[in-house]
Amino acid sequence: MKKVTKLEPSAPIVPKRKKVAAYARVSMETERLHHSLSAQISYYSELIQSNPEWEYAGVYADEAISGTTVNRPEFQRMLADCEAGKIDIILAKSISRFARNTVDLLNVVRHLKELGIEVKFEKENINSLSGDGELMLTLLASFAQEESISISNNVKWGVRKRMREGIPNGHFRVLGYRWEDDHLVIVPEEAEIVKRVFQNFLDGKSRLETEREFEAEGIRSINGCIMRDSNIKQILTNITYTGNLLLQKEYISNPIGKKRKKNRGELPQYFVENTHEAIIDMETFQYVQDEMARRKELGALANKSLNTSCFTGKIKCPYCGQSYMHNTRKPRTEYSQTLEFWVCGSRKKKGGHCKVKGTINQRSLEKALAEVLGLDEFEEDVFLDKVDVIYVPESYTLEIHLFDGRVITKECPNTGHQDCWTPEYRARASKQRRKSTTDKE
């Protein structure tokens, strides 16, 4: 007969408590919605802590942030804690509070599902780990996204209506002015910086020269940053300094992506005159715009701070559309010479590349052009008078377009290595070889 012995458990099995967190969000910063967010935080804190099967893991709350993007500080912190294993369940009031972008919502929920984390939506009564959870989420998230687009369109209508009446959309920041109630008022010390930017340009200085000048003097932008070329260009092209406003210079093309685009004629703009005191008169401002257009047409030749030559802007890549840029290579020894060569501008940019490989040696370039122009030696004046543009269709080949309509193709082999071998360098190399041979004997 079998003998059966009962083994009593050594310790009672205590069910492991689930780590539960909640997410709350409001999209606008108003006193009413602030109270709403506070109420959500209090409600979920009390709800989680009152459940004996749950362990409180916190409430994550974003304020004044749209749900069409997942780039929300508290939302991202919550996802990081999920990755770290600090959360088992997430509670949310509704799908629209969690995310209004269908794709983002499904991606996040699926990722959390892979981690074994459950998301519960109170209003819709949906559990992300249930069998039909994802189907219901897809349908309801689409409605939430369409609702967001509808709200965005209503807001746009209101903004554009105010613009038609000459009312700007909010209090934008601009160097030289501060808002007092709904009026722009000049800040004298900042206005002097603005005037100096315009005066430097009128004196013929490039934006790069002004940038270097301001950096040396410690002059900063309205955000306390170094005044870069882009900041200076923005000042020179901002009509606000004339005492007028141009409304709807930018717009948001997609309410989900929130990407801002410059208004290049897609939407109407509204010019509102005499809204505030001017720092720059309209005549000066218009002259600067015309001068900027002229300098842009000239290209690098208009920038005195650049080391230009007769070839600047003349050598073009037919594939990239970029001008070739001048480069120098320092001599390796005291007897060799500095090499000058030209390379497609696209290859100088980050991530840029060009199908035409290699560079153009300047000595070879000058020799080839002298032969084409029938000169014993290269002459800049003759070159500028007769040559319109030079294209480089393939490595070491020039397609020379003359002003008289002729197009001449000329080989331009790279002789940079030979050019380094000056008579002095050859003599030194020979002496070094002889010495090396003698030492070995």
Would you write up a description of this structure?
This protein is 39% helix and 19% strand. It is α/β, with parallel strands linked by helices and 441 residues long. It has a 5-stranded mixed β-sheet, with helices on both faces. Strands 12-16-17-18 form a 4-stranded mixed β-sheet. α4 (102-114) packs antiparallel against α5 (133-164). The radius of gyration is 35 Å and the shape is extended.
List the helices and strands and how they pair.
Elements: E1 18-26, H1 31-49, E2 54-63, H2 73-83, E3 89-92, H3 95-98, H4 102-114, E4 118-121, E5 126-127, H5 133-164, E6 177-180, E7 183-186, H6 188-202, H7 207-217, H8 229-236, E8 245-247, E9 250-252, E10 260-262, E11 270-272, H9 282-298, E12 315-316, E13 324-329, E14 339-344, E15 360-361, H10 362-372, H11 380-386, E16 387-394, E17 397-402, E18 407-411, H12 416-420, H13 423-440
Parallel strand pairs: 1-2, 1-3, 3-4, 12-16
Antiparallel strand pairs: 4-5, 6-7, 8-11, 9-10, 13-14, 14-15, 16-17, 17-18
Strand order of the largest sheet: 2-1-3-4-5
Structural class label:
alpha/beta
Distance between the termini: 104 Å
Q: Percent of residues in beta strands? A: 15-25%
> How would you sum up the global shape?
extended
What would a concise description of this structure say?
The chain is built from 13 helices and 18 strands.
List keywords for this structure.
single chain, 441 residues, four-stranded mixed sheet
